[in-house]
């Protein structure tokens, strides 16, 4: 395969890291097995094999490769990160009462909420074992703090999502919890295990943090302006599910009294009727909040790219820069 | 307070360890706080303040004190163990759809399943941060393995509880997961942090393991023979909830065809009718399974006491011996 012929940055990264990713997938397969409880691999295989872009483990492998790391702990850490991500998805589906994930029925629908809760816990404990095997207290510290940020962000989202008082700073904190904390931990631990300096580790954190925020803002924006064929989501799902995301938060911040009443009725109280989505889109257009949200996503992607300046000049660095562009390219 | 005037071993242990337990409670209070998500301390306070005997953190403090440990990490580890226990209870209540815990409505009833799942995750991540602060990879290894055993045991219980093929070895594994793994990790890490030798750490593991098994077998037996005023449970709750515990497993193992059909209908299929509990009790009496279960609990308690022989001759050791007696004293 000619890697230069591949145009999408995450696909080029995947191609360059394909041997390592194969090792990660094999480790995931081995460690999600359970001699005693066959329900565990059934549930996780359903989710893990459904695919997804494996973006998070790839970030860990890429960060280690930036420093030409020659050991094997980055494989463990990449699997750790994917296990944490999968565990979070299992618990999220229980919390959101979701019926679909990656185009397939969710585990809580195929089995039950119990299985999703307990198998999620099992994956967390497996990720914990994997990271302990690296013997790096610094890595453990980073992942412990990321876990706390993720869990706190999830609880915050649960209470803040339908509350009109949720402003951009609360939104940012939720986004850090639900997305950016694992992105930044993924890049950080890859650098730490490869012996990066403190300054470089900080740059890796900044890259993962900004990339994760750009990624999530883009996702939230696509919910209102996306092509449902390309995204697999229907326009306005977040509105119907009463989730306060950035385009709406910006509209609420500028709302006149009767507009505020509209958001109160549809989002806070959840009393939606025919035509409300169109009205919501009209209010977002009135205040240009989709454009403003796109500008925010672009700014975070630019910040991610700038963070890379402190890292070694390396083919991987070029691809990570391209990845930041790619995350927002779907918007522009 | 005259400690010698207190007759129950866990109350004497609590009295001797009261300064340390106060420090543990204070640390729990500080670490369960969340600046951003007030739902978190609301839910955990409900559960933590409801009491319980705080047996697990006490085991960690006692193990450290056996070696006259003079540091502060045992406080962190005791809080870690209680956080893991509390997180497990929150998730268990979702899985069991419980309405009551320690005589109060469960968190999933007062708030919702979402809160129980996510706050449980938050407590796990907080426990993880606390144990990383001890800087001991050996402690992290023990707790990572215990977490995996707990999670695997919970999944196993979910699928094995109503399956008549569940034998004593599967039961033991479930019991290790749901109870003994955290007891033994609690005693082990107390010893490790206090500098115990490998042989002593092994003895601490054996003590916690056997104590936890004795404790759980006693609990399961009391469900069938207990005084509901003293236990706060009704006789036969496990039967009505179709949980295969040791007294029934022993009866199933000796069942004749028509008896096996009875267990199949009531436990596997869950089609229970008036008079079934009485019939179940009659079958257990026929094969003497309550007595056999009591003998097993006593044997595990004796094993726990014997493990202590390898540990320093110390007031705490005498109390730990008494604790093993106490756990089964309710049966005899």
Description of the structure:
Chains A, B: InterPro entries: Isoprenoid_synthase_dom_sf (IPR008949), Polyprenyl_synt (IPR000092), Polyprenyl_synt_CS (IPR033749). Chains A, B: It is an enzyme of class 2 (transferase). Chains A, B: Belongs to the FPP/GGPP synthase family. Chains A, B: This is Octaprenyl diphosphate synthase. Chains A, B: GO terms for molecular function: all-trans-octaprenyl-diphosphate synthase activity; metal ion binding. The structure is a homodimer of 332-residue chains. Chain A has helices at 9-16, 18-31, 39-48, 55-66, 73-96, 107-110, 113-132, 137-160, 168-193, 198-225, 228-231, 237-240, 246-253, 257-268, 276-286, 289-307, 315-329, and strands at residues 100-101, 104-105. The first copy, chain A, is mainly α. The first copy, chain A, has a single domain (8-329), classed as Farnesyl Diphosphate Synthase (Orthogonal Bundle), CATH 1.10.600.10. In chain A, strands 1-2 form a two-stranded antiparallel ribbon. In chain A, strand 1 and strand 2 form a beta hairpin. In chain A, helix 16 packs antiparallel against helix 17. The longest helix of chain A is centred in the middle third of the chain and has 28 residues, at 198-225. The two termini of chain A are 29 Å apart. At the A-B interface, helix 5, helix 7 and helix 8 of A face helix 5, helix 7 and helix 8 of B.
